[in-house]
Amino acid sequence: MSRYTPATAEDRRRMLEYLGVGDLDDLYSGIPEKVRQKNLPDIPKALSEPEVLRNLRELAGANGNIDDLACFLGAGAYDHFIPAAVDSIISRGEFTTCYTPYQPEVSQGTLQAIFQYQTMVCELTGMEVSNASMYDGASAVAEAAVLAASATKKKKILWGQNVNPQTRDVLRTYCWSRSLEQGELPAAGGTVDQEALDAALSAGDVAALVVQSPSFFGTIEDLEALAEKLHQAEALLILSTDLLALGTLEAPGKLGADIVAGDGQTVGNPISFGGPAFGFIAVNKPLLRRMPGRICGQTVDSRGRRAFVLTLQAREQHIRREKATSNICSNQNLCIVAASVYFSLMGPQGLREVGEQIMAKTEYAVSQLEKSGKFRRAFPGVPHFREVALLSERPVAELNSRLLDAGIIGGYPLEPLYPGLKKGWLLAVTENRTKEEIDRLVAVAGGDAR
Amino acid sequence: MTKIPQDLRYTKEHEWIRMEGGVGVMGITDYAQHAMGDVVYVEFPDKGRKVKAGEDFVVVESVKGANDVFSPVSGTVLEVNDALEESPELLNEDAYANWLVRLEVADPGELDSLLDHGAYAKLLEELEAESQ
Amino acid sequence: MTRIIETVFESSRPGRKGYALPELDVPAVDCAAVLGKSCREKAPRLPEMAEVDVVRHFTRLSKLNYSVDEGFYPLGSCTMKYNPKVNEVAARMPGFARVHPLQPEETAQGALKLLFDLSGMLAEITGMDAVTLQPAAGAHGEQTGLMLIKAWHESRGEGKRTKVIVPDSAHGTNPASATVTGFETVEVASDEEGMVDLDSLKLLLDDTVAALMLTNPNTLGIFEKHILELTEAVHRAGGLVYYDGANLNAIMGKARPGDMGFDVLHLNLHKTFGTPHGGGGPGSGPVGVKAELEPFLPAPIVAFKGGRYTFTGKSERPRSIGRIRSFYGNFGVLVKAYAYIRALGPEGLKEASEMSVLNANYLAKKLGGLYPLAHKGHCMHEFVLNGGPLKRETGVSSLDVAKAVIEAGFHPPTIYFPLIVPEALMVEPTETESVETLDRFAEAMEDIVAKARSEGPEAFHGLPTTTPISRPDETMAARNPILRWQFEE
Fold it and tell me: Which residue of chain C comes nearest to B87, CA vs CA?
């Protein structure tokens, strides 16, 4: 008997007797003979707990991890510091092993945590309403595009080439499945090409432009100017951004963004080979009823006590069925609880300090690499946050291989996806990188020795 | 006891309509508002929208769900009841005093094929019996 | 006794902090100068709290939740089984938690092997030929599965197939997923047992039908005995059949969707494979397909080539529908499911399913005297109680009963689903409950029904009284939405 299934042989016998059933298999008599499985699944046999741990340690041990390797790789996943209290709190069974808070009386912990998270996203983005989260940043941005098309009743979604390639892939898939048109704009200078944008807008039927800032290259876009242009064309500005960066960058709501979305891995969630984390999405009140996903609201109970409930559920799939705004059924709840703990520990000052350290260390790393004479900036004169695209003298594969030998994970090779950036190398420098690590990077990357 | 005013025509989907001059004024019945529960929001169609008889064009959201409301006749949306934007609960208070949409009716003759007071009352009786 | 807790915004005090960063070891940069007007002007109003206060706040919040770790949680269709703690240890190993998804493949062979092996095991368990682990949740998996169906038909010039058939007993995600994938939903009638009527289905099958979506066992907990005829009929009409894997817990090791004629399915790792629900996520919704749909799977997929594990991307998979999310899936969740399957092995999975069915039948018989059951004979891993007669007799609704169940110290069953049963209560005990727990729950239900008969609905309207809040005003929440904390200006 498995340790997870309490029933003993005696329990089973008693229960079958109570049911008046001779053999447990009789309970499966409703399954036609033709369909019954003759053999057990051909998977490895059961392991005891120590064996499970041994097996997993072996698999884990076959991976390099960024505690041992200095990580200068970003491209959508970042090595940020997560205070210990975050994991301590989200390890609690009361947060981990409960279900969606459909019964508010027994879920006020989850519901209040969601309400607080929604508030924090609004504060950072400068938008009026946030939902309880989406699967990840890429799908949140794609859902934002769908929302914009439905709100404007127009069919075309534009995006810049400096939007994360994976986000663009997801946008393409969602646009295809919803029969929306797509248009990709060049970003040869690191930011969205204005002439191309003007041309695309005059061609008409544009529902929205998806802009990423900080972009995939780390560059910062002029959101205010973009918003003005789009609003004149009666199109919406969808900003894909990063909550941690918003501790340092201006709130996009103030600059005219209509929908703000992005990925939450950077705030309190382990990098974990790409998941789980969460996507966030925030809008202003006019778009509230079109916003997908769960939303938590404040109310009072029968005795006038403050209470939190899931609300505006009439839009959601389980009620609206084929007329739902989206089919999303869950939020990434535990991951947003983690984010809200992170934000509560860091506060505005903490985020500001993290941002300052990121900018200082990025500048130090890039200027030292430039001084070596082996690198130059791909987009000089454009402000950056956390990531900088550099052009390397040496082929990037060789560069990264040497760095790995020195215990460093190097930057992302850009040329395969951006042929115009010959030997392009996307370097990410977070607050976790020490001067020692950066100096070591510069010595190996900028050095001559083989 | 659900209210069924004598001077209105009704649909099987629990909408009512009357003519005011050339304009059709429609809403949902008392039975409908009761079945939906507390109304929290009404989503109206755009002015100028053309609808066919039986086409869904309004959504009345209650706590329990979102309910489609169908146009009793073919026509064009002239006006929607803005008062319900501020106070959707008015629909629960009096479903007949609080109309939803005023329509330019293409063919007033269409009202003749709708249920009259007696026929609608009978429909409600049948529904009541079914749910027993 | 726990009581309502102030928000973090109310606990915040200027100058407090719960973090400590090292001193800056490189020259500082003037952010405002570098960023110009992109630099933040006004700080976000996030809480300023010491670590002890943050920990106390969230610890006290957690105590307001009822969870599987605390007690019985018989939510039908959710499979609230026990979440093994060794899986939590596994997911947190630095060799998993501290691995960058884009680091060189040779430094991630363990992670790649885990993905490869897990895909293989899920394919074997379900009788499918290939699996993608990308989808983040069941609904996401459904959407992906329907996209695969769409792509398949399009590749054969059959883009005119725009209809998806769904039983009227189905979960709301099914028609919603169909809609968001650009399909039109058509309902097929189920009989009183929730089984699809074969003749009604045949009337709907024509060359505009893309697919039929089914759960098996169905939402009433009954196995579709005509499943082979149903899937065959759809195939003859040129359509595909989709399996909603929400109810897989009943049949692991007993029957496989791949042998029933299904072409594509999704799984819920947070249901069947014991990964924690997390209060609403993160879950994982892998999608399995038969060989004909394999080329369309989202890229990248892990392959084993030349003695090592490697990702095959879109360039090697030209017919792939592309990505449906970033990276490879909810990897941390996948680690937990992998550990679960390795711990149970083939015998353990079968035993889990068998016990889930035995527990459900035992409890159904115990409660069958109180409520009419929506099924005849035996059920599978879950069953539905018809609360209609009790409501007519006493005025006490299933909502009232649910609140009384909370009062009695259990989590209530799912209420008002499926829609085809009036005042439905859907009960799924799962295999990880002891017979004593089932007996105690049955006793509590007996007391509740007796109370309904002797005291009527007024005795229920104030329930629950033992929880921090009771009967929140959901109408008010929807009419005047307050969706964020309002600071005093």
Answer: C479
